Amino acid sequence: MTPYPPTHRPCTAPAPPSPQANLGLRRAKQCEDFLSLASWLAMKEPGLTTSVMKSQLSRLYGQLYAFQSKHAEALHAFAEDVYYCALEYGPEDVRTSLGYYNMGKVFQVGAMAGGRVGGDWAGYRVKSRLFRGR
Q1: What is the mean pLDDT of each run of 10 residues along the chain (134 residues)?
Q2: Whole-model pTM over 0.85
Q3: Taking Cα atoms as reference points, which of 91, 64, 56, 61 lies closest to residue 77?
Q4: From CA 116, how far away is CA 107, in angstroms rounded?
Q5: Domain 17-131 class?
Q6: What is the domain partition of the chain in residue ranges?
Q7: Are 75 and 103 in contact (CB under 8 A)?
Q8: Are 28 and 61 in contact (CB under 8 A)?
């Protein structure tokens, strides 16, 4: 008897818990090292990498960049998270909403800091058709 069902491949998960643990312990360099390894594994075996795995990697990168106050990179990573979740579940699924929430947090931090991210968002809101007349 094998410890795993025949369809389970224990080595295919690109994001081990180590990046999350290191990020939680505020060890950004170690987190980045583990994420780089996970990204390399995902690129090496693209047929075994699902949209959910890519989403998790992007989300972790976004959290790392947000922790490092790299707002533009965090937004890009969270946008990739939303994209891969939307591919798997659809853009309005609750599992996709965490990416939207994380993007909103980065916009809010950028706006409070008066940084470029907040300024870009304010300019976008003014130009957007969704906010005309409000």
Answers
A1: 49 58 78 88 90 93 92 93 93 90 86 58 43 42
A2: no
A3: 61
A4: 10
A5: mainly alpha
A6: 17-131
A7: yes
A8: no
